[in-house]
Amino acid sequence: MSSRRRREAPLPASSAGLLRFFEDETQGIKVRPELVTGLSIALIVIAILLDVLL
Question: In which domain, by residue range, is 41 found?
Fold first, then answer.
């Protein structure tokens, strides 16, 4: 009887929603994460340099 109860246990709902979310492809600009990180670091460096020099 205990093995029958194990098969009827529901799966967690949170994982199913996340898997479906990442399967969908949307239209829009595709940007690599490295580019976003590099531009963010460059902006921080420029802001610091402007603060120090001016």
Answer: 29-54
